[in-house]
Specification:
By secondary structure, the protein is of the alpha/beta class. The chain folds into five domains: 215 residues, no CATH class; 151 residues, Rossmann fold (3-Layer(aba) Sandwich), CATH 3.40.50; 75 residues, no CATH class; 169 residues, Rossmann fold (3-Layer(aba) Sandwich); 79 residues, Helicase, Ruva Protein, domain 3, CATH 1.10.8. Helices cover 52% and strands 9% of the residues. It is built from 32 helices and 14 strands. A six-stranded mixed beta sheet has the order 3-5-6-7-4-8, covered by helices on one side. A six-stranded mixed beta sheet has the order 9-11-12-13-10-14, with helices on both faces. Strands 1-2 form a two-stranded antiparallel sheet. Strand 6, helix 15 and strand 7 form a beta-alpha-beta unit. Helix 29 packs parallel to helix 31. The longest helix has 40 residues. It starts with a helix and ends in a 16-residue tail after the last helix.
Length: 737
Amino acid sequence: MNAQTWLDGNTNYLSCSLAWLRLKLEMMISSNSQALFDEMGSAPGLVMPTAINRRAGLVQEPGVSSSVFWQQLFSRPVGMISTPLESDAPPVSATQERLKMAQAARESAAQMEPAPALEELGQRLGLTPFEQNVLLLCAALELDTRIAGLCARAQADPNARYATFALAMALFDDPAWDALAADRPLRYWRLVEINQPGAQPLTTSAVRADERIVNYLKGMSGLDDRLSILLSPLSKVLQLPPSQQAAADAIIAHWQNSVAEHDAESSQLPIAQLLGPDPISKQLVAAQAAQALGLKVYTLAAENLPAQLSDLETLARLWQRESALNPVALYLDVQELGGADGAGNQGSFGLIQRFISRADGILLLGTRENWTQLSRANFSVDIDKPSTAEQQELWESALARYFLVDSQGSTEMRSSLGVRQLAAQFNLNETSISQIVKLAVDGSDANLTMLGARLWELCCTATRPRLDALAQRIELKESWDNLVLPVEQANLLHQIAHQVGQRQTVYEDWGFAERMNRGMGISALFAGESGTGKTMAAEVIANELKLNLYRIDLSAVVSKYIGETEKNLRRLFDAAEDGGAILFFDEADAMFGKRSEVKDSHDRYANIEVNYLLQRMETYRGLAILATNMKSALDTAFMRRLRFIVNFPFPGPNERKNIWQKVFPAKTPIEELDYDRLARFNITGGNIHSIALNAAFMAAQDNSKVSMPVVLSAIRSEYRKLDKQINEAEFQLMPGV
């Protein structure tokens, strides 16, 4: 049966049910009227009840006996007696016959597959026939405008235009008092809402159907409004890369095996824990697994869980109800709540535990690490971003949507756009790749070279927002021409840049990735005195590779709170590992220092931070550069994990001369300088840059060119700053200078 056919059948069933309900109410009204007449006829001296007096429109005048009053009432024309004394109501026997026909029509309409919504709801939530009829009565007030008036007449009160449990018990067969209990379906599942002001009895209080339930009975499948403000639907997935599809298949297999083995023992499927650092990839896998089982999956961020227990209980109950009514699954995102036991987030961990224990249905937990103390059976599946080869295919597929090319053209396109380099350098998920391609194509012309540059630029910016809070991005201006180093050190720097560019060839094409699961990143130590060019060298490499360079801000990373430093470092490495950034740890000895003997808790936690750094450097896949002027202070375990150690020597006379010749920009007005004499000053390249800048300001102040006297004056100031002894002979100008 297709959706429209079922919807038509469900509408027909509701129409038959409402017709049957109206007849039930009319029959009750007629019975009440007949009982009233019988009561009045058997007791002619009875004083007129207030409600009947009001409805009949008569008032017993003073001095008029009751017998005379009743005589006057029955002698009135029939049309003058208002409800509930309806003269034109059909005889009870006729109403009963019509009721039987309506009941038969209702039962016939219910013979559809799948069953009507009301019948299906009763089966899924365990409602008795009486409770189903109570729900029908409450929902009918929203579906049929005539029902409210009939309820008022049946209850002999014009203001009682609502349903009550008392009315339902008098109206339907096999009434059950336990239907009012809080643990019975009507109230447990929030199917009805009770308005019980003050000390009014529960049985006579107004009862209305929950809005979501009324919509469900009408065949509408929309999510409850109270859930929709917290939950977001995950989009359907057309196709996943093979590695992620294998993870989705593993989730499905776990669930299917659980159903086969434990169906008779438990109604709950085990929770699927999706482990890994990339939330988008985990959501795609969750959507694919749920979609394969015919489920619609919604996502809920853990930070959106209500803090009040009553609100949390309501949320869990509503979701439990929704999962019972519709084929849905919930993806609970706890990515930012830390480790397996919610370390450092015990309040949030407790809320999640409570929610999970009360929310039945299919549940997926998106977390970075395995949670070991869940209250329900669970299993774990690791979710990674697509492999490098898969990412290359994703790049090609995304670009092929905009460029119609044959196989030869596709090869040319891949080469022109640098698809291979994009996949090798950047570690992105399918969603990010699609978004970047769309932005690049929309923002550039048809020139493939320009488009390739645009793609690379957008990939670099993809990780910036995640790093900016914990690190400082260095604007890249230095190039190889500005870097002055001995040949050996310069060659090592070139090797670093080349290895970053050739990772795809070595790891993927030559098979090294198949034999390695760690150490595939590149880490280098730049050691040397301040001013010897360590930071400049990092800039040169980043500029060569066209990647962002981030100097780590220790004040933002290191925290006094236990576990926060590790969390901040993890965010740094994760963001940089996507490929768009190089991490530069300046003054690395402050963070990578030797572990100390544990004498108190402070030493223990400091060592934990160093241990975490050791492990993270082992598994890091990007480029990390450590710079220090205290190489001996570094922990020896870090030295083993470093692929390159570049010692930046104090510059000799030839290097210093070369630096002096390059230090002034081409636009700077310079008189002839004696570079050989300047090179004799025993200072570092950093000092030379400071001297050149100060000399430029001094010349600008005097509106003159940068000359030897100005430079020597700036050198004298630098010596005083460094507390270096000044030999006046070195600062004497030669005659004629």
